[in-house]
Design a protein that fits this description.
This protein is of the alpha/beta class. The chain is built from ten helices and eleven strands. The chain has a five-stranded parallel beta sheet. It has a four-stranded parallel beta sheet with strand order 4-3-5-6, with helices on both faces. A two-stranded antiparallel ribbon has the order 1-2. Helix 2 crosses helix 10. It starts with a strand and ends in a 6-residue tail after the last helix.
Length: 320
């Protein structure tokens, strides 16, 4: 569903009503978000980092799972655009009394919010909420499925350092099976022309990779020397319901980014991680602090990118 148009050179490109998947944007939409983020990154550097772009709008954070980076950066993004913000806390809500997701969503919609940023443990929950409310819905992570704004800030971070993703070789390493970040990143990276290799033990790969435009390897050492970006994923023990590895020590020995492995990278290669990091498991503590690490830069860029997303959905054009 579309609700307006965006563009500065006469073209009329549909603006998505919601951001539920990277696929809602496509290649042109991703490029547009990054161009907007360039402007909003400058706003964040001002002594008073605020513009009136979304004055009078209300953004609700509806998080059914814990979050630090995503929730806080969305709230910072909304406030820097002069929007009002509301934060939903599950433990202090009627969910503890048995209220279902639909009733919570419809209650929030009745309050007249303009955007709902939702994180939920169930894949597809944001699509359901989008069918129940009048507000724009932004997927801030649904189960193992997708995390589109993380992918957007990752693309923006790489573009800021490399200039382009076209032809870039990117290795995504670790618990791909349970990672919504990996799924959204694969979509976004390949849309922008990158070559993606998944590096993981077979037990931590999705059971079916048909349709994934990726290569697969179980040899991290063989991949590192040929990639421009190594993207480390956290072992998501909270989503695992069976023993998938002999031990964390063995996993680190084969798939952890140690200092010795970091030395295999090209001088201009980047080390990335969506956070939170398990230092000493998927990434060594000292590697996270190397000049090639852009992990904290990802966090900083997340605010500008989420400002761009909110502006694109709520402020770039009138709603039809």
């Amino acid at each position: 569903m579309t609700a307006g148009y965006s563009g500065t050179s006469g073209e009329r490109r549909p603006v998505p009503r919601h951001l539920l998947s990277v696929a809602d944007l496509g290649q042109e939409g991703i490029q547009e978000v990054m161009a907007l983020a360039d402007s909003f990154a400058e706003v964040s550097e001002r002594s008073i980092p605020r513009v009136p772009a979304l004055r009078g709008k209300t953004v609700m954070s509806l998080f059914y799972e814990d979050s630090t980076r995503t929730r806080l950066s969305f709230e910072a993004a909304a406030k820097r655009l002069s929007a009002d913000t509301l934060t939903f806390t599950v433990s202090a809500s009627s969910v503890s009394k048995g209220e279902c997701l639909r009733d919570t969503a419809e209650t929030i919609s009745a309050m007249g919010v303009d955007a709902v940023v939702i994180r939920h443990a169930s894949a597809g929950a944001p699509w359901q909420v989008a069918s129940w409310v009048d507000a724009c819905v932004i997927n801030a992570g649904d189960g193992w499925h997708e995390h589109p704004t993380q992918a957007l800030l990752d693309c923006y971070t790489i573009r800021s350092r490399m200039g382009s993703l076209h032809g870039l070789r990117i290795a995504i390493v670790g618990d791909v099976k349970h990672s919504r970040v990996a799924r959204s990143d694969v979509l976004a990276f390949t849309m922008l022309g990158a070559e993606v290799t998944l590096v993981a033990p077979p037990t931590l790969l999705p059971p079916n990779l048909s349709g994934w435009p990726v290569r697969v390897s179980s040899d991290l050492d063989a991949v590192l020397g040929n990639c421009g970006v190594v993207y480390m994923l956290r072992m998501q023990a909270e989503r695992q319901t069976e023993a998938l590895l002999p031990s964390l020590r063995e996993y680190t020995a084969r798939f952890g980014l140690t200092r010795a492995r970091a030395d295999l990278l090209a001088d201009d290669a980047l080390v990335m991680h969506p956070g939170p990091m398990n230092r000493g498991v998927e990434i060594a503590a000292d590697v996270a602090e190397l000049p090639c690490s852009v992990i904290t830069r990802q966090v900083a860029n997340g605010v500008a990118v989420r400002m761009a997303v909110l502006f694109l959905l709520l402020g770039a054009s009138p709603r039809g």
